[in-house]
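Sorry, explain these C-alpha cells?

***
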Amino acid sequence: MNLKNVYILDDRAILYVNGEDSIEFLQNLISNNINKVSDDNSCFTSLLTPQGKFLYEFIIVKHKTGFFIDCEKSQVDGLYKQLNVYKLRSKVEILNLSNEFVVAAFSYDKFLTFDGAKNNPGFTLKYREDPICLDPRNKELGARLIINLEKLYLSLKKLDLHDADLKEYYSLSHNLGIVPKHLNKLQNKLFGIECNYEELNGIDFKKGCYVGQENTARIKLKNKLSKRLFPINLIHGKLYEGESIFNKDIEIGKVLIDKDYPFALIRYLDKNFEENTEFKTKEASISIKKPDWVSS
C-alpha cells in the first residue's frame, strides 16, 4: 500500500455490544478469546454453527465500555439477529451503528508513524477518541480506523491520507489469501478451521467452550485438517459457484466464491494438488496458490 492511500471500506458494517454481561456473552460464542481485547489490542474471530461450520467472521475492537464488531455489510443483518437469538436474559445491548460509523484502511507503514504504535497484529491505539488497529489477521493488510462518518474526511485530511481505489485493497487481500468479500457464500459450506482461522489469529484453542468448539478442537487435535480455503486466479473462462476443480480427471476442490475475488475449498494435502499446475473447471482454467502463511 502507498503510504498516503486510504481505502474507505463501504462494504463493512459496525455493530456495538455493550452491557455488564457483554464479556461473558461474547466469550461463550466466539472462537477467539474476548479477554485478548483491550484498549491496546483487538482480535479477529468467528461465530460458527454448533457443528463448527462457518457462519460469520469479524474483528472486535474495544470502544468505551463496550465492543465494536467490524463485519462485512452483507453479513450484518444475519449476525445482528444471531447475536440477539443467543442474548436470552443476558444484560447486553446490541446496536447496529452502520449508518453512523465507517471503517477506513491504510498502510502498515503509515500505522507505524503513529506515536506508540507497535509492530504487532491487533495492536490498537487511539487517534483522538477513535480506535485504530493493525489488522489482527495479517499486518500486511495494514491498519483499520473505525470513526464516525461525520468526522471521517476531516480526520483523513489531518492525517494526510487520500482516498484510493477500493479494488486495490480487495486485490491485496485476495493476493494474501484472505477473503475480502462475499462471505455469505461460505456459510455452512466448510468448517471454520478450514478458513485458516488458526493462522489468521482467529481461534484460541486454550479458551473454554464456545459454539462449534467441539468439532473445531477435534479436527485440530486429531490432525484431520485436509482441506483449506485458498484464492483462485482465473486464467481464462468463467467460474461457477459450487463446481468442482480438477487436475486432469482428479477432483481436488470446489469453487465457493466465484465472483470478483474467487476462493475455493482445496484438498491441499492431496498429491494431485501441485501449486504450479493449471487446474480446470467446466469452463475455466485457473491457478491456485497456497498463501505463504499457511502451515503444511
